[in-house]
Automatic annotation (TrEMBL):
Keywords per UniProt: Hydrolase, Metal-binding, Metalloprotease, Protease, Signal, Zinc
Gene: pepF
Protease is among the record's keywords: yes
Function, as annotated: Has oligopeptidase activity and degrades a variety of small bioactive peptides.
Entry's family note: Belongs to the peptidase M3B family.
UniProt xrefs under InterPro entries: OligopepF_N_dom, OligoPept_F_C, Pept_M3A_M3B, Pept_M3A_M3B_dom, Peptidase_M3B
Record's protein name: Oligopeptidase F
Signal peptide range in chain numbering: 1-21
Species of the source: Roseateles agri
Length: 627
C-alpha cells in the first residue's frame, strides 16, 4: 500500500519522504453491492472546491519557492533559524494538502490521464520544493549539536522544530555540501520514475485474460484475482492461478528491468550519502536500529514450524491430500454471510469498545463524514490505504469494499490509521504530526486483532467460531510471515545489487521462488510451489517503497501486545497506547515504543506473536476435534 506523499517527514533532513499509510495486501477485490452508495465515495471539496482552485494553489506555491532562497545564510542565529524553519514548514504544509488532492483523484481512476497529469504536477512541485530547500541540511548540520541545542533553549518558537533539527544534526555525517544536496534533490524526480512506470503498467496496461468461472466470463485483473483465488472449488482456484500469473511472467523481463532500476536507485542514494547499506540508509531517518530488521527476519525463519503447522492444519480441514500455493487463500469455514458498509462500521465500533468511549465516539463521527472511497470500479488503484497528510482537514481512506469479512477487517484496519491521525493531529503541531510507518501499522493492526477477538468471543455457533479463528490465523500469516518473507526478499535483492551482481527479472523470480518454497515448506511437502509463482514479486507494489513492508510484521507483533492487554481490561496499558498514538513524530519511533514497554530489536515480541498463532491453532484444533 503506498498512499503517495501522505506527509513529508524530515524534509530538512536528507529530504526523506515518509508516508502515513497502509496498503493491506489482501484488501482489494472485485464486485461490490455498494457501487451506488454515495456515502461510499469521498468528498474532496474540503481540500479544494474545484480543480481550478487546486491549480491556483499549486501555482501560488510554485511562486513561493524562489523566496526560500532568501533564507540562505540566515540560519546562524536562534531567531533566524526559527524564522527559516517556520517559513519552510508553512509551505510544506500547503504542499501536503495540494499533493493529497492530486494523489486521491489519480488513484480513483488510473486511466484518467488528466488526473494522472495533475498528480505528476504535484510530484514535480514537491521535487522543486526539495531543490529549493536543499541548502537547509548543509547549513543546519554545520551549526553543530551544541549551537542547535542552545538555539532551541533560547527560542521557544523552535520547540516544534526541535526533533527535526536534532535529526539533521544526528545525520550530519550523511549531509553533503550545498551543491551536492541540490544535485541529489534534483535527482528525486527521475528516481521516482520506476515506481510510476510500474504503477501505470500493472494498474492500467497489462492485458488481463478472460476466463469462464461458474459459467460467467470474467476479466481476470488484479481485483478479480483476489476475489476468485479463494473460491471453494480447487479446480477454479488452480484455473485462476494458471491464468493470472502468466500475465506477469510474460512481462518478467520488463518488470525486472523496472525493479532493477528501483534497486539501483536505492543503492545509489545510500552510497551518495555514505551509508554502509541500503537498509541502513532506509532506517536512518527514523533512527531505527538495523537489528530490528534482521531480528525480525531471523525470528520469522525460526517460527516457520508454526507456519508449516498452520498450512498442514488447513490441508486437513480442507480435505486436501496435497496442497498447492493456489490453496492458501480459501477460507476454512463459511462466513456468516455478507456485510454492508453500515454493518461493517457497527461491527467495528462494537469490537473496539475496549479502547474506550472517546475512541469509539471519534470513530463514529468519522464514519459519518465522506472520508472513504470504498466503491470498486475499473481503473481504481488496487489495495487500500489511509492518507492523512492534509493536516487541517481530515484523513482520507481508499479501499474496495466487497461485502465479505476481509473487507470488514480491512475497514477496521484503515480506520485504525485514520484514528491514529485524528489523535495525532489533535495533539501535535503540524511539524511533529507525521508519525513514522514503524508505528503507523500498530493501531491499524491492533484494530484487526480486536475485531478478530470480538468475532471469536461473539460467535453464535461452532461454525462461526471456526471461521473467526481461521480468519485470525490467516491475518497472522499474512501480516507477520508473509510480510517477513517480503522483507527477506528485499534484503536479498538489495544486497545482490550492492555486491555488483546483475539483476534481471529471471533472477528476481529465482530469489523469490526460493523464499516461497522455504516459507511454505515445499521440501517438506507442506505446500507445493509451482515455479511459475516465483513471478509473484512483480505483483507487490510495496517493493517500490524500499524496506517498508517489514514494518507490517514488526507492527503486528507490537499490536498483539497491545490488543491482548487492552482486550483484557489493562487500563494502564491502554493509557500508554494512547500516549503512543498522541506522540506522532515527536521522537524516534523506536524510543516511543520502548517507552510503551516494547523493544523491537529483541526476539521477544516476535516470539510472542508466533506463540499467539500456536494458541489460536490449539483452540481451532480442539474445536474441530469435538463433536
Amino acid at each position: 500500500m503506498n498512499a503517495k506523499r501522505t506527509a513529508i517527514a524530515l524534509a530538512a533532513a536528507l529530504q526523506i519522504l515518509s508516508v502515513q499509510a497502509a496498503d493491506h495486501t489482501a484488501a482489494a477485490s472485485a464486485t461490490s453491492a455498494t457501487a451506488a452508495a454515495t456515502d461510499a465515495v469521498w468528498d474532496l471539496k474540503p481540500l479544494y472546491p474545484s480543480v481550478e482552485a487546486w491549480d491556483a494553489e499549486r501555482k501560488a506555491i510554485l511562486a513561493e519557492l524562489p523566496k526560500l532562497q532568501i533564507l540562505k545564510g540566515t540560519l546562524g542565529t536562534a531567531a533566524g533559524l526559527r524564522a527559516g524553519m517556520d517559513q519552510v514548514s508553512a509551505l510544506r504544509k500547503r504542499l501536503d494538502r495540494m499533493a493529497v488532492y492530486a494523489s486521491l483523484a489519480a488513484d480513483v481512476d488510473t486511466k484518467n490521464t488528466e488526473n494522472q497529469a495533475r498528480n505528476q504536477l504535484g510530484d514535480a512541485a514537491y521535487n522543486q520544493f526539495g531543490e529549493a530547500t536543499s541548502f537547509l541540511n548543509t547549513e543546519i548540520a554545520a551549526l553543530g549539536s551544541d549551537k542547535v541545542e542552545a538555539f532551541i533553549k533560547a527560542e521557544p518558537g523552535l520547540a516544534k522544530h526541535a526533533y527535526s533539527l536534532r535529526t539533521i544534526v544526528r545525520l550530519a555525517s550523511h549531509v553533503l555540501s550545498g551543491p551536492e544536496e541540490a544535485l541529489l534533490a534534483s535527482a528525486a524526480e527521475p528516481l521516482q520514475q520506476p515506481q510510476n512506470i510500474y504503477s501505470l503498467l500493472t494498474n492500467a496496461d497489462l492485458p488481463w485474460p478472460k476466463i469462464k468461472i461458474h459459467g460467467k466470463e470474467v476479466t481476470l485483473d488484479q481485483e478479480q484475482y483476489v476475489a476468485f483465488r479463494s473460491d471453494p472449488d480447487p479446480k477454479i482456484r488452480l484455473q485462476v492461478f494458471k491464468a493470472f500469473w502468466p500475465v506477469y511472467k510474460a512481462y518478467e523481463r520488463t518488470l525486472g528491468s523496472i525493479y532493477s532500476a528501483q534497486l539501483r536507485g536505492d543503492v545509489f542514494q545510500a552510497r551518495a550519502r555514505k551509508f554502509d547499506s541500503s537498509v541502513a540508509a532506509a532506517q536512518s531517518g527514523d533512527n531505527i536500529p538495523e537489528a530490528v530488521y534482521r531480528t525480525l527476519v531471523q525470528e520469522a525463519n525460526n517460527g516457520l514450524p508454526t507456519l508449516h503447522r498452520y498450512f498442514q492444519l488447513r490441508s486437513k480441514m480442507l480435505g486436501l491430500k496435497s496442497a498447492g500455493y493456489q490453496d492458501i487463500y480459501v477460507p476454512l469455514a463459511k462466513p456468516k454471510g455478507q456485510y454492508t458498509i453500515p454493518e461493517a462500521e457497527a461491527l467495528t465500533l462494537d469490537a473496539l469498545k475496549p479502547l474506550g468511549t472517546e475512541y469509539t465516539g471519534k470513530l463514529a463521527d468519522g464514519f459519518k463524514g465522506q472520508w472513504m472511497h470504498a466503491v470498486a470500479q475499473p481503473g481504481k488503484r488496487s489495495g487500500a490505504y489511509m492518507n492523512g497528510a492534509a493536516y487541517d482537514v481530515h484523513p482520507y481512506l481508499l479501499m474496495s469494499f466487497t461485502n465479505n469479512y476481509n473487507s470488514v477487517s480491512t475497514l477496521a484496519h484503515e480506520w485504525g490509521h485514520a484514528m491514529h491521525t485524528v489523535y495525532t493531529t489533535g495533539t501535535q503541531p503540524y511539524e511533529t504530526s507525521n508519525y513514522a510507518t514503524f508505528i503507523a501499522e500498530i493501531p491499524s493492526t491492533a484494530n484487526e486483532l480486536l475485531l478478530a477477538d470480538y468475532m471469536v468471543g461473539h460467535a453464535k455457533s461452532k461454525d462461526e467460531k471456526i471461521f473467526a479463528l481461521s480468519q485470525e490465523l490467516e491475518n497472522l500469516r499474512g501480516t507477520f510471515f508473509r510480510q517477513a518473507m517480503f522483507a527477506e526478499f528485499e534484503l536479498k535483492a538489495h544486497e545482490a545489487v550492492e555486491k555488483g551482481e546483475a539483476m534481471t527479472g529471471e533472477k528476481l523470480s529465482a530469489i523469490y521462488l526460493d523464499l516461497l518454497k522455504r516459507y511454505h515448506g515445499d521440501a517438506e511437502n507442506v505446500v507445493k510451489i509451482d515455479p511459475l509463482y516465483g513471478i509473484e514479486w512483480a505483483y507487490i507494489p510495496h517493493f517500490y517503497r524500499n524496506f517498508y513492508v517489514y514494518q507490517y510484521a514488526t507492527c503486528i507483533s507490537a499490536a498483539a501486545f497491545f490488543a491482548e492487554g487492552i482486550g483484557k481490561g489493562d487500563t494502564a496499558l491502554r493509557d500508554r497506547y494512547f500516549t503512543l498514538l498522541k506522540a506522532g513524530g515527536s521522537d524516534d519511533p523506536y524510543k516511543l515504543l520502548l517507552a510503551a514497554g516494547l523493544d523491537m530489536a529483541k526476539p521477544d515480541p516476535y516470539k510472542a506473536v508466533v506463540k499467539r498463532m500456536d494458541r489460536v491453532m490449539d483452540e481451532l484444533e480442539a474445536l474441530t476435534a469435538s463433536k
